[in-house]
Amino acid sequence: MPTVLAIETSCDETSVSVVKNREVLSLVTATQILSHQPFGGVVPELASREHLETVNYSIEQALTESGLDWTGIDGIAVTAAPGLVGSLLIGITAAKTLAMIYGKPLIGVHHLEGHIYANYLSEPDLQPPFLSLLVSGGHTSLIHVKECGVYEILGETRDDAAGEAFDKVARLLKLEYPGGPVIDRLAKSGDPLKYPLPQGNVSLPAGGFHPYDTSFSGLKTAVLRLVQKLETTETEMPVADIAASFQQSVALALTKRVSNCVRDFGLKTVTVGGGVAANTGLRQHLQQAAAQQGWRVIFPPMKFCTDNAAMIGCAAAEHLRLGHRSSLNLAVQSRLPITEVMRLYET
Ligand code: KG4
Ligand code: ZN
Questions:
Q1: Is residue 241 located within the same domain as residue 162?
Q2: 113 and 247, same structural domain?
Q3: Tens digits of residue pLDDT in 17-28
Q4: Host domain of residue 38
Q5: 240, pLDDT greater than 80
Q6: 111 belongs to a structural domain
Q7: Alpha-carbon distance 234 to 149, whole Å?
Q8: Pairwise CA distance, residues 129 & 150, whole Å
Q9: How far is 164 from 170, CA to CA, in rounded Å?
Q10: pTM for the whole structure
Q11: Which of 4, 215, 247, 316 could form a disulfide with 158 if both were Cys (CB 3.0 to 4.6 A apart)?
């Protein structure tokens, strides 16, 4: 049962956690949302500077809260890819330094594999195969989880990630960043059927639509055109109805692709991760489809859905158990397909 100290700094959360196998002993997360809010999105330089300011304190705090000292730590885990290079560098430098000082193995972790492992934190008995829907500000992926380190990407977005679409539409509606929670709140008092909007279809050259891929840029443009039209006809922008209609389109688009994957690959369990997993409309539609079509959908607690080091530690503990180690020369990578996670290890 390996115990690891894990560091996650791939985007705008500085997070450190001590994880014993699938049990979280401590989790310290410093969010930077307020720093990026005035800019309407994550500013990479600002993100790395804040990681640098908070990472050492977060490591100390996570270790103290775990009740362990360094002798109780079997490995140092760190998100090595994908993410913002300047941000990843802060985490990996801290992790390598700790690995060298305390003579512990280094375990680089793929950020998306971390999101998949978040499911095991709340459902320790979960077994592959299952389908993982990852929907955040940077990712929209449908991943067939076969076993540790063995993944197949079934579907992806061709352009904007789901969370990015929420953030861009919120900006169009002059709402604050991040847009997802605001749109979700407004949608509760709006009519989702008021404005029919596209549902993220990707046309195939031979005709018809891709069964698993999505495109959200057309949906975003449709909202822009709608807003421009309503500006000329309405005295007050019907923001709640637009939010509800947009949210419904995203939820239906994702649910349809999840259903297609479950059907075509004979899967029985679907897990949802990333910030958009909080979305009320998405949850409702997925739960309804699961009940109607006879599969199970799992939403881990939100603290494990959004970026956190506990999920990185959980993935690392499994790799460590399997004998996987990273080189102290491990480099960060802004992009790395999840199908290539084993490139992070020497053996
Ligand atoms: O996973 P996350 O915290 O960070 C990364 O992007 O890695 O996801 C943040 C994204 C943002 O785009 C935010 O607008 C979206 O998740 N989000 C939501 C909701 N809460 C957060 N989107 C829709 N509905 C929500 N309730
Ligand atoms: Zn993430």
A1: yes
A2: no
A3: 999 999 999 999
A4: 3-118+305-344
A5: yes
A6: yes
A7: 53
A8: 10
A9: 10
A10: 0.94
A11: 215
Task: Quickly state the pLDDT bin for 32 (edges 50, 70, 90).
Answer: confident
Burial 116-142 (b: 16+ CB within 10 A, else e): bbbbbbbeeebeeebbbbbbbbbbbbb
Rounded to an integer, what distance in angstroms lies between the CA atom of residue 28 and that of residue 98?
17
Residue 254 sits in the same domain as residue 312: no
Q: Are residues 177 and 283 in the same domain?
A: yes
Is residue 332 assigned to a domain? Answer: yes
Q: Do residues 317 and 287 share a domain? A: no
Give how many domains the chain has, as a whole number.
Answer: 2
Half-sphere exposure (CA, 13 Å, Cβ side) for 204? 8
289: its two tokens: 């489809």
- E runs forming strands in the chain: 3-8, 13-20, 23-31, 75-81, 106-110, 130-135, 140-147, 150-156, 269-273, 296-298
Say yes or no: 104 and 198 in one domain.
Answer: no
d(CA 248, CA 150): 33
For residue 26, what pLDDT is reported? Answer: 98
How much distance in Å is there from the Cα of 96 to the middle of ligand 1? 30
The tens digit of pLDDT for each residue in 142-199 reads 999 999 999 999 999 999 999 999 999 999 999 999 999 999 999 999 999 999 999 9
Q: Give yes or no: residues 25 and 114 share one domain.
A: yes
Domain boundary among 281, 299, 317: 299
Domain-embedded: residue 123: no
Whether residue 272 lies inside any domain: the answer is yes
With a 6 A CB cut-off, is 184 part of the ligand 1 pocket?
yes
Instruction: Determine the residue type at 48.
Output: S
Q: Whose CA is nearest to atom 18 of ligand 1?
A: 180
Q: Do 160 and 218 contact (CB within 8 A), yes or no? A: no
Q: Are residues 167 and 314 in the same domain?
A: no
- Give the model's pLDDT for residue 347: 61
For the domain that residue 182 is a member of, what is the CATH number? 3.30.420.40
Which residue from 110, 134, 166 has its CB within 8 A of the most atoms of ligand 1, so it is best to mutate?
Answer: 166
pLDDT, one tens digit per residue, over 273-319 is 999 999 999 999 999 999 999 999 999 999 999 999 999 999 999 99
155 lines ligand 1 (CB under 6 A): no
Atom of ligand 1 nearest to the CA of 162: 12
